[in-house]
Write a structure and sequence with these properties.
Elements lengths: L3 E5 L6 H10 L4 E5 L15 H6 L3 E7 L14 H17 L7 E5 L10 H14 L3 E7 H10 L4 E5 L7 E3 L19 E10 L10 E7 L8
Parallel strand pairs: 1-2, 2-3, 3-4, 4-5, 5-6, 6-8, 7-8
Antiparallel strand pairs: 1-9, 8-9
Helix pairs in contact: 3-4
């Protein structure tokens, strides 16, 4: 099964860059970072949902929650914190105008194992998100994917599995449309298969923006 190409970047890519990419590539969707979040303070994506959707972009809202490690991360990985962060994600989704039922992805940067207290945090976060009327997804390493999905089969899994984390050029504007199952977990909804990719553009102030590249089973990962 072919997928739909997408990109994400923690800081807003820029209007000219996104216009150029949408017009000149096969990209269907982009990540949309909700902020401020516990481990992501940059708010540059906020307020841009309507314009991006009007331009034809599908969106994958991302909430960067509590992490086990990381110098710039928040580390309050507990069930009560998960519930509070889930409510925060609901508030941000609502403020940005995402329709009820839209999916939001909890960003887990750490690898295996998927054990307590992180299991408690994720369960509480997803429960709070659903109680607020939205769908729950999790972005995580491919080596966590099956355990996260077994814990809650209704979660949409966005798994990352890349060959390098070093900055490197990405040739052309024909982005991969691989089956997300290629990440190694057949139940994946999306697969981040490229990280820190320099994408050459002819328009915009930043001619070689650095993005992560993914593929998903749908052109709009947030759609119910």
């Amino acid at each position: 099964m072919a997928g739909y190409a997408g990109i994400d970047r923690s800081e807003f890519l820029g209007d000219a860059e996104l216009i150029g990419l949408k017009a000149n590539s096969n990209l269907s969707w982009c990540g949309y970072y909700l902020a401020p979040a516990p481990s992501h303070g940059d708010t540059s994506w906020m307020g841009r949902r309507a314009a991006l959707e009007a331009a034809g972009w599908g969106l994958a809202p991302i909430y960067v929650g509590q992490q086990l490690t990381g110098r710039r991360s928040s580390h309050d990985v507990t069930g009560p914190r998960g519930a509070a962060d889930g409510r925060d994600a609901v508030s941000l989704m609502s403020a940005e105008g995402f329709a009820p039922g839209a999916f939001v992805f909890l960003d887990l940067e750490d690898g295996a194992p998927f054990t307590a207290p992180r299991t408690d945090y994720v369960a509480a976060w997803t429960a709070a998100v659903r109680a607020g009327g939205y769908g729950a997804g999790v972005y995580c390493s491919h080596d966590l994917a099956i355990d996260v999905h077994v814990s809650d089969p209704a979660i949409r899994i966005w798994a990352f599995r890349v060959t390098t984390t070093q900055t490197h050029p990405f040739p052309g504007l024909n982005f991969p449309t691989s089956d997300p199952a290629g990440c190694g977990y057949p139940g994946a909804f999306a697969w981040q298969l490229g990280q820190n990719c320099q994408v050459a553009l002819t328009a915009g102030a930043n001619p070689t923006p650095i993005v992560d590249i993914s593929t998903a089973v749908a052109p709009n990962p947030s759609a119910p």
